Amino acid sequence: MNTENKKTFYITTPIYYPSGDPHIGHCYTTVACDTISRYKRMQGYDVMFLTGTDEHGQKIEQKAEAAGVTPKEFVDRIVATFKELWSYMNISYDRFIRTTDGYHVSAVQKIFKDLYDRGYIYKGKYSGKYCTPCESFWTESQLDENGCCPECHRPVKIAEEEAYFFKMSPFSDRLEKLLLETDYLNPRTRAVELVNNFIKPGLEDVCVSRTSFKWGIPVTFDEKHVVYVWIDALSNYITALGYDNDEYDDFAKYWPADVHMVAKDIMRFHALIWPAMLMALDIPLPKQLAVHGWITFQSKTGEAQKMSKSLGNVVDPLMLGKRYGVDSIRYHILREMALGADSAFSNEIMINRINSDLANGFGNLVSRTVAMADKYFGGTLPEEREAAEIDDSLIGELTALRDITDKCIDETRLKNALEAIFTAVDRANKYIDETEPWKLGKDESKRARLASVLYNLLESIRIISTLLAPFMPTMMPKVWEQIGAAESDASYDNAAGFGVLPANVTVHKGEILFPRIDLDKEIAELNAIIEKNMETAKAKLEAESADENTPENSDIPALLPEITIDDFAKLDIRAAKVLSVEKVKKSDKLLCFRLDDGMGGRQVVSGIAEYYTPEELTGKTVQIIANLKPIKLRGVESLGMICSADTADGVKVLFLDDSIPAGSKIR
Ligand code: MSP
What we know:
Helices cover 42% and strands 18% of the residues. Among the domains are: 346-496, Isoleucyl-tRNA Synthetase, Domain 1; 563-666, CATH 2.40.50.140. Helix 14 runs antiparallel to helix 15. With 667 residues, the chain is of the alpha+beta class. Strand 4 and strand 5 form a beta hairpin. The strands form 7 sheets. Strands 16, 17, 18, 19, 22, 25 and 26 form a 7-stranded antiparallel β-sheet that branches. A 6-stranded parallel β-sheet has the order 3-2-1-11-12-7, sandwiched between helices. Strands 5-4-6-8 form a 4-stranded antiparallel β-sheet. 5'-O-[(L-methionyl)-sulphamoyl]adenosine binds at residues 14-17, 25-26, 28-29, 54, 233-234, 236, 262-263, 265-266, 294-295, 307.
């Protein structure tokens, strides 16, 4: 598909739900994709890095309603916070797609129709467990431990809804081959689990439309349906390039994608449904699906918890970035997470990591080297040199580093790339201990040797900082400034060779790049923040569950002010038999009852025609308020009132046991 003869690279993050503010978990994929994009740009690729937001669906519709705004107003605010965070985290995306963008909406409609025309989408009946208050269907495995709704924990009922389905079975064999015999899924270890759990038992067709809510992309040929949010969302990877729309024209240039990066919870959609959709549309498949684990929160007791707003344990990347610098946070999350495994976030691990690797390791290497060049040579190295055998292993290791990081980037192993880079940092620090420049500095006859040692250190730093720049883009230009490297010196091409800086390079002593963090003080402050968040979240949960039980917040109306027994005694409540019932003329609501009240009979008018037919009521025993002042309804006299209950399913008459004689007093 790639028609131009230019090296292109297309990488995507998932598009995020703008249902709540972003947290450090969302940052992982985005920072990882940003790092790979920067590395590939440095290698000379024409990169397209796509991210965005997934804005449709019932959840958003409900949250917007609760907030008293339209769904679009609701998502606009949160999308803005995502964009602010990405800008703060120095994310160099090339395109940002919103699924509410007009071009995407019409392209999804075309894709849906195309799949329908090709015979892969058909109309059927969706039958499942339905929760009426949440208006949601759930599968058996999603129900809670009592078989109730996993959201509100109320009972569910079996319900049916007309829906469109996407056929998965025609793609079983190709999907199995894709997962087991190609490099599509990274890491491959997850392929067997997918094949055994989903393909072998027989792929189920996917329900791809909904009629129970409105906030989605309408199906053009059946407008009461909206497109299932995953079909809408997955399509973003091609609509953002201009597939089925005129907004962009990059599909031929960038497709197929080189890397889709996602976390494990959405692997199934990307490993089965997405390739099946592409197969159905006759579009080539993406090259790699890189799946990482979650950043979990390590609690005080050491247990790994899923980050969740309701637990108050979500880690705010903005707050951390402001305290320790954006690059340190980027470094920490990339250094901790191995592809395929979860990584537990703890403030202590983060601070120790920043202190040991960045302050003591790399920062110290730069500051010592620059300080020595300053001290012994006034900042500018002399051109004379004296090499020694000990230099060879340093130069050998440093010039081999780029090949290692290249391979790690291609295999999406960012943690391993950083490990290799920091092994080189340790190697360079060890070279300082081996060559003891402070001793050379005391001996005028060792000037040339000292210049060689410092030059080798500056060159090591140049290579290290060049390869680190995609990971830590804010700080590396400051390093180049300090070691006297022009930006062109810190290029990919120069990163596998020594001898790039001018022999008489001038260094510039500058600020401390990564100040050491006071662990105890910071931990105390961060723990206080987390504890406060957790308390607030707990109080909020308690208030919400109390609210749920208070009449004001449920369908149950509030209690009326208290009355005395004497007040109650003023009501004359009686049993009565329904002799006959007629509709009141010119009224849709009113029914006129002839009642045997044990006192000679009476006529009562009641507004329940929407809920009962006359036949359903005749012969029943009901309860009436017998001493209500008579009134006329539509000109018909009513002597009393029939008691009934207001329920979520409408008005229900209070029928009495038929053995209760007409006229019996009720108290
Ligand atoms: N909208 C879908 C994706 C559609 S892609 C066509 C979605 N959005 S999400 O906002 O809920 O999640 C986006 C990504 O962030 C997912 O890969 C999700 O797993 C990831 N993460 C959310 N919390 C995370 C952590 N705590 N750690 C790592 N990744 C996390 O799913």
